[in-house]
Structure formats: C-alpha cells, structure tokens
Specification:
The chain folds into two domains: 106 residues, Immunoglobulin-like (Sandwich); 233 residues, Jelly Rolls (Sandwich), CATH 2.60.120. It is mainly β. It is 6% helix and 45% strand. The protein is elongated and about 105 Å long. Strand 24 and strand 25 form a beta hairpin.
Length: 400
C-alpha cells in the first residue's frame, strides 16, 4: 500500500510539471536589481582669514528608486579638529530618484603661511547602496597666505644711528606690500642667470611678500615654465643707488643643499660697462650645504677673461645662519670696502688689491636680494633639501 501511494504521488508530480511547462502560463522570477554605488569627492580650497565651507559631493553611479542613507564623520590628518576645521558627523539622506548629496565642513579662518593641511570625511553604513570611494580628502591651502610669524627679537641687531652719519635710505618692510618705488623684480629663468641656476624668478606673492615688518623671499619646489623651482630676485637698479656709506642688512638666511641666498650690489653702469667691469660687492652669500658659513666677496676686472676677486668667509662659533637674525654690513668709503658680520670685520679691499685693473667701487651701486636654487657653486638640491626655503630680511639701511 505504501509503495502504491509513493508511485501515485510521483506520477502526479511529473504530470503537473509537464502540464505547467507546456501551458506557457508561468511568470519567471525577475533578476535582482543592482544597487547604486556611492562615492565622495575630494575638496581643495585656499584658506582665508574668514571661515569658509568645504562642500564634499557624494554621487551615485545611477539614480536609485529607493531612498539611500550613509553615515559620515570627519577625521584629522594634518589639520586638527576645532583648530583648523569644525568636526561633523551624522547621516546623509539621498532621496529616491536622486543621484547626489552634499556634506559641508566649516574650515576655521587663518592668515598664517604654513604647510597645507588635510582632513578626511569618511562614509560608512550604507543602506540601499554600496560604497566605492569611502573617504574624501579636504586640503586646506595655507602656502599662499601673507602672514608669516617671525620672532624678530632673536639674534643680532645694529644701531639705528651712528655718530657723524645720517640715515639716507632704508626699507623697514613695514607696509602691506613690497615698495615698487624702490624695488623691481627680475623674472624668468634667464638661462641660469650666468650661474647655471635652476629656479624661475617671479614677482608673485608666493615668492616674495612683506609680513609684519619683514621681507620674505621664498624658494619653492614647483614646476614653472620649464623650471623645477621658483624664487624671487629683487633689485633697486635706477631707483635706489648709492656711492659710499655704511650699509646694514639684518636677515635670517636659509640653508640646505643647493640653496644659495645672497645680499649683494652691482654697479649701476652694468648695462654700459658689463660684468665684472661694473664691479660686484657681495655683502653676504651662503652656500646651503655650509649652514654655519657666509662669504663676503668683491669682484672686478675689465672683462670675464680678466675677472678677479677677493673673498673671505666667516664661520659662526656655534649654530647655523637659519636659526636667528644676523646683521651683514659693509663700510664703504673712497678706495676702500670693508665687510662685517654682527660688527665683526672679516674682509677688506682697497685700490692696492686691484692694481693693474680699474677699481670700480667709487661709483653708484644698486642692491640685489635673491635666493637662488642650484648653480655652479652650491650644486643642485638633493633628497634631503627641504622646501620651501625662506630668507627673512628685517631691514636694509644706508648711512652716509
């Protein structure tokens, strides 16, 4: 009896299956609908002195017929919550038949030039979607801001007056911009400026600006017009030119392999006489791989073949030149030039040194302030050279 029942049931099942297949009346199971895929954008903005909103876009690869939710939270990288930005967390809702949403993060205003900073916005816990990019990076661009805090009390300073001398010109860099009535920017890469230099000089505030009584000349590692570095070179040619006097320049000097800062003067007749016949007075040069040594040099000669010079170096008893301010001075009278650091004399030239050649140092000269990158003397930067590099000038003064 049991066997008959089993056979009957099997027969009935087979018959029903056969009828079902033959009837054409069945409805196939619809395929599963693929979920939308969410991703979050990166955001990069220049910082300002006021708070500003970073808007992170969350996009779906296709519109969803169902509402979507995503959890989000901010996370520090180099930017710090409540100091650089206001942290947020919560749930983002993207309505059905929409394909995007926005998360706002408020960045706190600041005006100090420093390294760029980043923070993240992270997505998690998706409903009715999946996540392909779960982290958006916010980049706060600080590197172009125009306030650079400096402690001007650290280091050497010289007198603001000298007996028997009058201050005939100075730049204390107290304004909001570089004084173009005194200074001109020389720009471009100019085939290495005669020294195989690697930088492109610009007149941008990225490379030269004034801040709280200081001039900042900044060398950067960045590509511009075929050069891998940028910097600034400022001159007073045909604007502020001098013959004789005591010159004081208070500055903090950058260091590092391939960095070549200089505070120097050229004869204002260079366009007519050429170099070195016009004369060159290097009040301060530093070769970056020797961070505790500066050089004072005088150059002369009828032409490059007959070029001659007298150079002397000064080594700090301790520390390096990028740690605090020093004063680089020149006492310049008829037929004699003396070069000082912190009122210590370390090089002298007179007409006796140029015997047999024209002595060019009794004529008008103009200032040049620059930070070169690379060149025949320091060579190129290496992997250990840190950028940006900054020369900070507190003042330049001419007494006669």
């Amino acid at each position: 009896m049991k066997i008959r029942s089993i056979i009957y049931l099997l027969f009935t099942f087979v018959l029903m299956e056969s009828c079902s297949k033959g009837s054409g009346s069945s409805t196939p199971t619809p395929p599963a609908v693929a979920l939308s895929i969410a991703s979050i954008s990166d955001v990069s903005n220049e910082r300002t002195g006021n708070n500003l909103k970073f808007q992170f876009s969350i996009t779906l690869d296709k519109v969803s017929t169902s509402a979507i939710t995503l959890s989000y939270t901010t996370a520090d990288v180099t930017a710090l919550a409540n100091k650089d930005y206001k942290p947020v967390s919560g749930t983002l809702n993207i309505p059905a038949n929409s394909n995007s949403g926005t998360i706002e993060v408020e960045v706190i205003g600041d005006s100090a030039r420093k390294a760029n900073q980043t923070f993240n916005v992270q997505l998690s816990n998706p409903t009715n979607c999946t996540i392909s990019t779960n982290k958006g990076t916010g980049t706060i661009i600080n590197e172009n801001l125009l306030y650079f805090p400096v402690d001007n009390t650290v280091g050497y300073a010289t007198a603001s007056s000298y007996p028997g001398k009058t201050l005939v010109w100075s730049d204390e860099f107290d304004g909001n911009t570089i004084n173009t009535a005194a200074w001109t920017f020389e720009t471009g890469n100019n085939n290495g400026w005669g020294n195989a230099e690697l930088e492109n000089y610009t007149g941008r505030t990225q490379n030269a600006f004034v801040s709280k009584g200081n001039l900042i000349i900044e060398a950067r590692k960045e590509s511009l017009a075929g050069s891998a570095y940028t910097s600034a070179r400022m001159i007073t040619k045909n604007k502020q030119v001098f013959t004789y006097g005591r010159i004081d320049i208070r500055a903090k000097v950058p260091t590092g392999k391939g960095i070549w800062p200089a505070l120097w003067m050229l004869g204002n007749n260079i366009d007519q006489a050429g170099w070195p016949a016009c004369g060159e007075m290097d009040i301060m040069e530093l070769v970056g791989q020797e961070p505790n040594k500066v050089h004072g040099t005088l150059h002369w000669g009828a032409n490059t073949t007959l070029h001659a010079s007298k150079e002397a170096g000064y080594v700090l008893p301790s520390g390096t030149f990028d740690q605090q301010f020093h004063v680089f001075s020149m006492v310049w009278v008829k037929d004699q030039v003396q070069i000082y650091i912190d009122d210590i004399l370390y090089n002298t030239i007179t007409t006796s040194n140029t015997a047999g050649s024209n002595y060019p140092f009794n004529s008008n000269f103009f200032f040049i302030f620059n930070v070169a990158v690379g060149g025949t003397w320091p060579g190129p930067p290496d992997a250990n050279t840190v950028f940006p590099q900054r020369m900070i000038v507190d003042y330049v003064r001419v007494f006669q």
